UniProtKB/TrEMBL annotation:
Entries under SMART domains matching the protein: HTH_MERR
Protein name: MerR family transcriptional regulator
Organism in which the protein naturally occurs: Streptomyces poriferorum
Residues annotated as domain HTH merR-type: 1-67
Pfam families listed in its UniProt record: MerR_1, Methyltransf_11
Amino acid sequence: MGRVAELAGVSVRTLHHYDAIRLVRPSARTPAGYRAYSAADVERLREVLAYRRLGFGLREIAELVGDPTTDAVAHLLRLRGLLLERRDRADAMVTAIDSELEARAKGLKVTPEEQLEMLGARLYDAIGGAYTATRRTEPRIAAQIWDALGDARTVLNVGAGTGSYEPADRDVTAVEPSAVMREQRPAGSAPCVAAAAESLPFEDGSFDVAMAVSTVHHWGDPIAGLREMRRVARRVVVLTFDTDEPGWQDRFWLTRDYLPEFATVLADFPSLAGMAGAISARVEPVPVPWDCADGLFEAYWRRPGAYLEDHVRRAMSVWTRVGPQAERRAVRRLGDDLDSGRWAERNSDLAGLDAADLGLRLLMA
């Protein structure tokens, strides 16, 4: 253990802790009978330490390295993407800061738009690199979406991102405007076209069904995008969010108690009735499981500590939209309430729930 600690640059105490919590357990034996690290153990330790140094919490790391569908190569690709995204974001911010410093040195006025350039011109280009770490297909939500696809053989996935929820047994074509997201699509995934939902480059009726999952709220004109989907496909399936219900902000404790700015983020979002009406769709609620594998905004409703983890929040566009001041305040207050027990007392009714209706809705036309 001492030799492994020396090579890894960590303390023996850290390795003992990982062993105690069953994160990395030495499984081999020395000739004298002492426990030792096998090659597989060292590989797992490497992954744990890499995620740790990227700011992941031990609970999230345990879920990542314990995922039976992810091998060493997948972890390396994920880590590479995270590191490249961090490097690229830092380089872009340095460039923007240098430009502003140069302008100020010349006595030039810097507009608010120019000041915001360091945050990135496109939302997904700013947050997209974090998606592969926490945004994965949730099987129970996927089953509901895929059931809605019915007997469709050709599927257009609009706002496809990294490819979550794309059915493997259909002929899928993806549409994604963000280069950052397109670059993270796994090898062998569906072909992806760089285009926006509001102007799909396909003939009328080109597909059996067009689907869109948790993306409509990012479109410049959601209604136009939905109508485009209806134009190019004979059926439409969309996972979106309901803001029609009175007091909808209070459905989720995070927006109710810590992030009231969430209502502002969706202030201009079309009504659910308006979206359904635009494509003549029926509406079905989509419950969020308590152990949801997809790290969407509502995923951790029974695991509140996850919202204290920076890398978890980075894969949720809401935090970028509300701004750093609101984010810091919400995280600080949530952390205080978790430490004091106030959160548990206020939300004791959630402990026995396996799933919750937090406003996700499936439109089917």
